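Board notes (copied after class):
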Amino acid sequence: MGTAYRGNEEEIRALDCFIKLMRAAESVADRINRHIGAAGLTMSQFGVLEALFHRGPLCQKDLATKILKSSGNITLVIDNLEKRGLVRRERGIADRRYITVFLAEEGHALIADIFPRHVSVITGELGIITPEEQRELERICRILGLKERL
């Protein structure tokens, strides 16, 4: 279903494309992320655990940038992960404002269990389009995602 807006051809085409993009993204994300919710994690919490799992300890600012969250939001996400014993924080010695987040043993075990399933589900979801279509989608998404930086 496209837009009901009665603008010019360029506007209608852009709105229809945006609606399809958002619906597809939400639909795929919903199917992909069910196992994350079943593990009692939010997408932001999963993003933090995944970043620490693959990149090692990171400061809160870098984590916020990596998962596209504000500094205030990342603090809450890490607070909740810390309460569950999945991560731990260490303040810098030279600068106490600098906080490094580490993956705790329980967090490592959880993300090590969840991540292979996550990859498998994503591979299955995107497997309905050809490798060439996947590369084209990646190219287009990169253009859209980087537009404000141009």
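Comment from the instructor: The chain has one domain: 9-149. The longest strand covers residues 87-91.
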